[in-house]
Amino acid sequence: MSESPQLMGSEGSPVFLIGAQRSGTTALSFALNAAFHDVGGLFTVNGKLPYLLQRWITQEDIECAHLRADEILWALRRKLPSGKGAEEWLARTEAVLRKYAQEVAEGSGISPIEMARGIVSESYGAGLRWGEKYNEYLLMLPYLRSLVPEARYVVLIRHPEAVVHSMLKWSGDRPWNPGARKSALDKWNSWNARWLHFARNIPNESYLMVDYEELCRGSETDRMEKFLGLELRQYFTTLNSRTGSPHTDAPLPPDTMKTWRALNALRSTQRAPQSP
């Protein structure tokens, strides 16, 4: 193992890390942020730019010569993206949004999706190895694919009881977080079901499903290195499953158990992709 990370193959396509809340995506995203940074790339943690573009670039606004750059920039800075390189990326993104807002004000006839593609491409930098984590991308997968057709996905799954245990312990100002086991399980189920539906229509080699508990034990590292074309082992040493899968006498609801089994079936049958 070399002291510094080495690329394994080409830089490949942009990578989105997705998974239901409390599935370990934040911990993994910081590891990927460091790994990408050390090879001259960028992996933003909760940058959420595509999420905001979907909601704030509308055909009506473009026709009225008004790109809502102020709203997007406020949302980007309300809860700042994290990780190495995040502040530089945010400054570049602001400049890009201001440029496009001026073009729209002068009567640009570009479509909303074409504009969003341009903003994403210029914000992350042409030719730059980049990726992004934001849980809510699970709610907008078709748009994400139309925005970045060449993107690949790392999908983090975790046992629903472990997720619920973490949800119910979650503190802070999160009015959208469930406060009871049933509602938390329902939320876990609805988010993961969206991935299962989406995965039916994309190539098998465009995604990698990873179990968080196994990732923490080190048994998923080789698959992730092959998929991303990047050495990762040294960045995964701090990953740990603090909550684990708590014991409970209550059975999982049938729909939740069905989704959990489907996730594991898809993961177990997926061929480990080769480096691009």
Features:
12 helices; single chain; alpha/beta; 276 residues
Please characterize this protein's 3D structure.
Helix content is 49%, strand content 8%. The protein has 276 residues and is α/β, with parallel strands linked by helices. It has 12 helices and 5 strands. The protein is globular. It has helices at 25-37, 49-56, 59-63, 69-78, 86-105, 112-124, 141-147, 160-169, 181-199, 212-217, 221-228, 254-269; strands spanning 15-18, 42-45, 130-133, 152-157, 207-211. The model is unreliable at 1-10 and 271-276 (pLDDT under 50).
Write the layout of secondary structure elements.
Elements: E1 15-18, H1 25-37, E2 42-45, H2 49-56, H3 59-63, H4 69-78, H5 86-105, H6 112-124, E3 130-133, H7 141-147, E4 152-157, H8 160-169, H9 181-199, E5 207-211, H10 212-217, H11 221-228, H12 254-269
Parallel strand pairs: 1-3, 1-4, 2-3, 4-5
Helix pairs in contact: 2-4, 4-5, 5-6, 8-9, 9-12
